[in-house]
Amino acid sequence: MSSRCREEGRARLGALMLAAASAAAIAGLPGTVSGPLRVCADPANPPFSMVDETGFENRIASVIAAELGTDVRYYWWPQRRGFVRNTLDANVCDVIVGVPARSDAVLTTPAYYRAGYVFAYRPGRVPDLRSFDDPRLRTLRVGVPLVGNDMAATPPGHALARRGLTDNVIGYAPLGTTVTAERMIEALADGTLDVALLWAPQASYYARRQDFEVALVPARDEDGDPSEFGMAMGVRSGDVALRDTLTSAMARAAPRIDAVLREYGLDDRPLRAAAGAM
After folding, report:
1. Band of pLDDT at residue 30, cut at 50, 70 and 90
2. Which residues pair with 117 in a beta bridge?
3. What is the distance between the alpha carbons of residues 134 and 144, in angstroms, rounded to a whole number?
């Protein structure tokens, strides 16, 4: 892990500890929950969550539950538009393990990791692509993920549009039973795409399962949308007690959480994902 990543890890742990101390000063340090930790999760959204509980969010939920002296009970729901309404707001579960730390829909803990988008490409076809300002993007076939029922563009889509790069861009909608990132990596394989702009955790997961090399390079946009986002745990708005309980548990379990994240390649290094890794 790089020195910057280690510094960010220490900063994250410090933020968690400070938040936990503040909660403890107000209400006494929360230590356990009554009953199982009821987690809302998608049953088929690798590498985040899977019904067999092999996703890294499943693993982290288990770490937190163990820290709280309980176990995990899942309520499975596909993570599409209306996810919060059909899970947390319906009171069928209490915690979402991965949400943006700055979220209006839920009350969040401090971020426990940061992630952004990456350029994914076959280095034999597109060598050393590292910037939205690379002139080759004007002629390459570039794939971007779309989100929501209205097919809104994600930050990399906005970054391309601000540079007038739209004619050669292909949008991939979150439709059907196949994960968007998986379809985009397959498009790199068959030549439909030259470059895919993907959310880093998904890019790493699918690229490492191919029989060809995929370069994954952080897609940092210096003049527009943020390139990285803090990811946190979310609870129902107003459930301060549970939020503080989770924050304290996260602080105590930070080394174990970081170990899971490292196992899944969630650090700040550019990745080269080769067949057979992980």
Report:
1. very low
2. 199
3. 16
CB 107 within 8 A of CB 234: yes
CATH class of 3-114+230-270: alpha beta
Query: Superfamily for 115-218?
Result: Periplasmic binding protein-like II (3.40.190.10)
Give me the residue label for tokens 């129902």. Answer: 236
- pLDDT tens, position by position, 10-27: 455 555 544 444 444 333
- Tell whether pTM > 0.85: no
Every domain of the chain and the residues it spans: 3-114+230-270, 115-218
Task: Find, among 195, 194, 199, the residue nearest to 174 by Cα.
Answer: 199
Distance CA 258, CA 241 (A): 24
Q: Is the dihedral of CA 131, 132, 135, 137 positive or negative?
A: positive
CA-to-CA distance for 239 and 107, rounded, in angstroms? Answer: 7
**What digits encode the pLDDT tens for the residues 86-139?**
999 999 999 999 999 988 899 999 999 999 999 999 999 999 999 999 999 999
